[in-house]
Amino acid sequence: MIVTGASRGIGAATAILAAERGYAVCVNYVRNRLRADEVVATIRKAGGRAIAIAADVAREHEILRMYETVDREFGRVDVLVNNAGVIETQARVEDVDAARLVRLFNVNVVGSFLCAREAIRRMSTKHGGTGGSIVNVSSVAARLGASGEYVDYAATKGAIDTFTVGLAREVANEGIRVNSVRPGFIYTEIHAEGGEPGRVDRIKDSLPMKRGGEAIEVARAILWLASDEASYSTGSILEVAGGR
Questions:
Q1: Residue 218: alpha-carbon gap to chain centroid
Q2: Which of 64, 143, 198, 229 has the most CB atoms around its CB within 10 Å?
Q3: Cα–Cα–Cα angle for 200, 202, 208, nearest 5°?
Q4: What's the pLDDT tens digit per position in 104-118?
Q5: Which residues pair with 27 in a beta bridge?
Q6: How many domains does the chain have?
Q7: CA nearest neighbour of 25 among 241, 226, 236, 240
Q8: SS3 213
Q9: What does DSSP assign to residue 186?
Q10: Catalytic residue positions?
Q11: Which residues contact 74 (CB under 8 A, 6 or more apart)?
């Protein structure tokens, strides 16, 4: 399994849970080598197999290098979790510039496309593969719009929802299932990057379940979609949003 953006948050929880369930895991990260190594150490201490690979998914040549390393170390790819994503400081659309949009779309959308492309080239029965699963990490923002805060980020996740459905239909007869999870307000560090570390606590009382979610709760949904238990699910978007 390759998990992009796996040095923290949902990605780290997914990598650790995947290893517990028998996957050899590629822990992808961009800059924080220490955190990625901590995830790998946690996996290895429990008897699992994992490697940390630095690659910016906004850079095609780095994605290719990551896959080449996985080919060499693991021999094949069974699951790709497109989790890597970025956010910018909260802003209204009238204050957004082109550079910000390019940064967001390059990581959140282009990176997911390119990582999926390389996975398909290895998984597809058309290319001699044995099939596999791709799980994209979207956001409830794609449905809610994130007005006044993250409309641009929400738009990238709306693109991921469309990508999930379209790609699922494209490769359904090649042994590949493509699904997505749509997390809601989850306690991760991404909110601090947007300028409001306590955002989940501010919002939680407005949620039907009256609490924020934990990264492990999203990870469990990802692992279910990746597993044979979801063998007849493709093109699905699974909400993990506390009812919002």
A1: 10
A2: 143
A3: 75
A4: 999 999 999 999 999
A5: 3, 52
A6: 1
A7: 226
A8: strand
A9: B
A10: 153
A11: 24, 26
CA–CA dist 111, 82 (Å, integer): 8
Alpha carbon 185 to chain centroid distance?
A: 15
CA–CA distance, 207 with 140 (Å, rounded to integer): 12
66-76: pLDDT as tens digits: 999 999 999 99
At residue 212, the pLDDT reads 85
Q: Which two tokens stand for residue 20?
A: 């517990």
| Structural domain harbouring 133 | 2-240
Enumerate residues 6+ apart whose C-beta is below 8 A from 242. Answer: 184, 185, 207, 208, 209, 211, 212, 213
Residues 6+ apart with CB under 8 A from 126: 174
What does the CA dihedral 143, 147, 153, 156 come to, rounded to 10 degrees?
Answer: 40
Strands 237-240, 79-82: parallel, antiparallel or unpaired by DSSP?
unpaired
Residues of the chain falling short of pLDDT 50: none
The rounded distance, in Å, linking the Cα atoms of 243 and 101 is 29
What does the DSSP assignment read for 25-43?
Answer: EEEEESS-HHHHHHHHHHH
- State the Cα–Cα distance between residues 242 and 208, nearest whole angstrom: 6
